[in-house]
Amino acid sequence: MRPDPTQDLASWCEVEVGALWANLETLRRQLSPGSLLGVVVKSDAYGHGLLPCAREFAAAGADWLVLNSAAEAQFLRRAGIETPLYICGPVFPFQAGAIAQTGARVVLYGPQLARALSQAAGAQPVRVHLKIETGTSRQGLGLDEALELGRLVADLPGLWLEGLTTHYADIEDTTDHRYAQRQQELLQEAVAAFAAAGLGVEKVHAANSAATLLWPQTHASLVRVGIAAYGLWPSRETYAVALQRCQDQAAGWVPQLRPALSWRARLVQVKEVPAGAYIGYGRTFRTTHPTRLGILPVGYYEGYDRRLSNVAHVLVGGLRAPVRGRVCMNMLMVDLTHIPEARAGQVATLLGRDGEEEVSAETLAGWMGTINYEAVSRIHPGQPRLLRRAEGLYEE
Questions:
Q1: Spatial CA neighbour of 217 closest among 163, 180, 248, 242
Q2: Is-contact 55 17, C-beta < 8 A?
Q3: Is 203 one of the annotated active-site residues of the chain?
């Protein structure tokens, strides 16, 4: 029998491998013919663990892995990941050598970086993509500036202008997608302008999770799927549109996504406090009856947000245990009065399912007043990520 990898852990995350594979299969079924499936694993794979998720997605058939930084690309290459890498975040000229060494594709946004990449390029050219500013007002270039930079790339040795891209500003948080449609039109106008200038590109891409799930016409050469690969819908609005489309077209099928992440912690102490006792910093909660209190070794440093104070609940023995008092830096307190069998050492679920009850990422996000992206991605990387397979839990 395999030893329990959690036996010496105070808290940990579990990543269900079967869910990752199932989500990728679901997303691949959505793809338009000829589109590549890029999976975003930046920011510690949205809190799920960069290396284990990158390995599983690569094994499950992801065509590209999408990262935020040169450091993430170096980390994956050192770990033996050979899947094509695309860095969607900022890259600095001093990182040009790392880019050439890893073979990662990058978003190019200025001549200084272009020249640095050209000088660093080896036998294989560095593949660059230009991001067209279409209305997000973040990373990106206006069309004239992009064309000027494209001409410079064509003149510099060691560079290959492989793609044009953009990023949607408002495709997830609304059911009115006219703004996103206009962004898509502006990208296509840029593609035409580049072709007319003799700067044709091999790849055009814009689709994120929401676009991949809802709009086949945006799939183009590549989709960049993030949150959906981990089993979470980008927003309620995205799910509502998918559900309505299914009903309108009598399709009978809405993509089924399986959340992959659970977060657990052991009760470190169970204690009795009298009626009228204050709990935690600031005395924000006062008991009205004798209370059985549980202490968990997780706080806002570990990623359990302070906004969950006196609002959230965890699961203990399949029952809901409300958070009492303020979430501390490394501890939180929960009410176990109605769970008399709870004992120190017992596992509590902060995120995920226990029996018939569940605390979803959407629920956590609602309590925090934010989005499910933040709820999962802010779990501290120091929390161990264990892979759950059919035969049990495994350390990476």
A1: 180
A2: no
A3: no
Domains belonging to the chain, first-starting first, are 31-230 (3.20.20.10), 261-395 (2.40.37.10)
**Cα–Cα distance for residue pair 42/72, rounded to 1 Å:** 7
Paired tokens of 31: 């793809």
264 phi/psi in degrees, rounded to 5: -125, 155
Is residue 358 within 8 A of residue 352, CB to CB? The reply is: yes
Give dist(CA 8, CA 92) in Å, integer: 41
In 3D space, the residue among 242, 256, 243, 235 whose CA is nearest the CA of residue 170 turns out to be: 235
Single-letter amino acid, residue 393: L
**Number of neighbours of residue 57 by Cβ within 10 angstroms:** 27
Report the SS3 class of residue 240. helix
HSE at residue 303, side-chain half, CA atoms within 13 A, is 26
Active site residue 131: no
| Residue of 42, 109, 300, 373 marked active site | 42
Closest Cα to residue 30, out of 257, 370, 362?
257
Contacts for 82 with CB less than 8 Å, ≥ 6 apart: 58
Helix or strand or coil: residue 282? helix
- CB-facing half-sphere around the CA of 212: CA atoms within 13 A: 31
Cβ-count burial 359-394 (b if 16+ within 10 Å, e if not): bebbebbbbbeebbbbbbbbbeeebbbbbbeeeeee
Q: Exposure string (b/e) for 169-198, b if CB count within 10 Å is 16 or more? A: eebbeeeebeebeebbebbeebbebbeeee
Catalytic residue among 230, 281, 304, 394: 281
In tens, the pLDDT along 6-54 reads 999 999 999 999 999 999 999 999 999 999 999 999 999 999 999 999 9
pLDDT single digits (tens) 86-127: 999 999 999 999 999 999 999 999 999 999 999 999 889 999
Cα 244 versus chain centre, distance: 25
Q: What is the DSSP letter of 145?
A: H
How many Å apart are CA 2 and CA 216, to the nearest integer?
45
392: which residues sit within 8 A by CB, 6+ positions away? 2
DSSP state of 197: T
**pTM for this structure?**
0.94
In sign, the C-alpha dihedral spanning 183, 216, 207, 160 is negative
d(CA 322, CA 160): 56
Look up residue 374 and give its amino acid: E
